Amino acid sequence: MSELIMVRYGEIALKGKNRHFFENVLINNMRIALKEIEAKKIYKTQGRIFVEVADKHESEKAMKLLQKVFGIVSISPVERTPLDLQRMKEKVLAYFRAFYRPGISFKIESRRANKAFPTRSPEINREVGGYILQNIADAKVDVHNPEVKINIEVREDEAYIYSAAFPGSGGLPVSVTGKAILLLSGGIDSPVAAWMGMKRGLKVEALHFYSFPFTSERAKQKVIDLCHVLKNYNHGLKLHIAPFTEIQKQIYQNCPPALGITIMRRMMFRIAQALAKKQKALCILTGESLGQVASQTLESMHVINAITNLPVIRPLVGLDKSEITAISKKIGTYEISIRPYEDCCTIFVPKHPETKPTIEQAEKAEENLDIQTLVDASISGMETLKF
Question: Taking the model in full, what pTM does it have?
Answer without folding.
Answer: 0.91
